[in-house]
Amino acid sequence: MQVSEAQAASVASYAYKASLIGSAHRFELTEEGLSWHIAGRSGLWRYDEISAIRLSFRPVSMQRHRFRADISHADGGRIAILSTTWQTAALMAAQDNAYRDFIVQLHARMAEAGSRAVLTVGLGRKTYAAALALLAVLAVAMTGLLIRALMVGEFAGALFVIGFAALFTWQIGGFVRRNQPQSYSFDRLPRSVLP
Question: What secondary structure letter does DSSP report for 57?
């Protein structure tokens, strides 16, 4: 059977391996909807049946630049799409361009279908508030250690505390900034949670 250029252009696909063992998670944007194949299961979700999308920045130790899209269906189902894929036991590769293109096309097709999905960015509001509270407690503790080190004349200890605080801020600051809970619209996708 011959596939026309229009039919080929109307199908966008994306795949990634969530773990070293197991098959790839495969997704396609077809005329009918989002088609997915995950661990022996598959389904087709019409674009107007997708109830929510949450985009977030989710780094891990093997890949400091990783993004995630959690897609929810009206019947309660949920799938996750990651921007990285496992290649070997020690290598997780980024698929930034393919992931971004797929997510942008998914939003465009949902908008075209008249979707009323809830579009959000980052962590849940309660989780984000708890993270901010924990960071505030850590900041107070680090400030106390710094003041104590300066009062007793331990300048090497004070430099260590300052260095540790700077590294911590650099590592955690981007995660917290990118994952601030907020809503967005189909025509204004957030750049902070797309590669």
Answer: E
Give the count of alpha carbons within 13 A of 177, CB side only: 8
pTM above 0.90, yes or no: no
The CATH number for 27's domain is: 2.30.29.30
Residues 9 and 105 in one domain: yes
Q: Tell me the C-alpha distance between 28 and 34, whole Å.
A: 6
Q: Domain span at residue 159?
A: 125-175
Residue 30 shares a structural domain with residue 82: yes
For residue 187, give the 3-state DSSP assignment: coil
The answer to whether position 18 is within a domain reads yes
Low-confidence ranges of the chain (pLDDT < 50): 1-8
Do 18 and 94 belong together in one domain?
yes
Could you read off the pLDDT of 62-105 as tens digits, one per residue? Answer: 667 889 999 999 999 999 999 988 877 667 788 889 999 999 99
The rounded distance, in Å, linking the Cα atoms of 59 and 64 is 5
Across 17-149, the runs of DSSP E, i.e. the strands, are: 25-29, 34-38, 41-45, 50-57, 67-73, 78-82, 84-88, 91-94, 118-121
